[in-house]
Amino acid sequence: MTMIPADVASVTDYEPYARQRLSAQAWAYFSGGAADEISLHANLRCYERLGLWPAALTRFSQPTTRLTLLGREMAYPILLAPVAYQRMAHERGELETVLGAGALGATCVVSMQASHTFEDIAKAAHAPLWLQWYWQRDRGFMRELLARVEALGYEALVFTVDASVNGVRNREQRAGFSLPPGVDAINLRGSGAPSQAHGAAGESPLFGSGLLDHAPDWDDLAWLVSVSRLPVLVKGVMRPSDAQRAVQAGASGLIVSNHGGRTLDGAPPPLAVLQGVCQSVGPASVPVLMDGGIRRGTDILKAIALGAQAVLIGRPYIYGLTVGGAAGVAHVLHILRAELEVAMALTGCNDLAAIGPAVLYRPERDSVF
Length: 369
Description:
alpha/beta, TIM Barrel, eight-stranded parallel β-sheet
């Protein structure tokens, strides 16, 4: 589309337009989850269980959403999460995504399974880039890849640890998903057999296949931290004990995530475990971010109130990309940022530091009914 549809008022308004434009296979890939999609839907519903306390007669003084993350000042606490194979959504894929992110000054986490080269993505970017990192079998290949992205100016690695194998994605299986011609993980060519399969998992037994022999462990995280000049955030941490161990291994940040409900069905929503993870590592330790089910600015405020310093969004910007390219991505970011500012104003929060558990209304605790 050459312009944003006039009736798109919230980020979810992009979904029906995106579904019309995507093939059945691509829609299954981008919108689906694992197995019965219990976790996928729980990620969305969990925000409904928390309300917000309105604040009256607040005095504001230069209100702001600014923050500093890993030494980089950001205008607002929204990053773009890594999503693979974006050329299935738009012919220019990741190039349009980083262009839209740059227009709004948002940091974009580029998928290791991007469908454009890291070099071309860096050329198109006008805002900071981080790189998602999946463990590969060949450490020599990983060193070469790491040298490439360091030279290109990527600012952090996001080591994804909740998808050592793909989840059982029945929706993709039913749609007959496979990568279309001309779309692949271009940056992983020559890596041998990557640890991430390209299709839906579940077609053959896992145990006895040898695949888990190459799944990363804590020693591998420590190795990655030791060889990288970039800070390493660990994405996919859900247990407080794992959060503590990641910090001990040298992680510079944590991202609480269940991979968008796409790996282990039945995993709890990240919002439900966020506060426990934050408390386990302490406020002065490392930054904790969160993704999963963000669709409103009020969702962002709730995540920050429970301890997140920032959030990442995935499907909303992919749907914006599908419909409007870079303009759609930028529009999604604009909507969420504006909604966050409104929510902060109505809850009496002058800045992000003012957002805490006191703004949360919990019906089971606070209601007399």
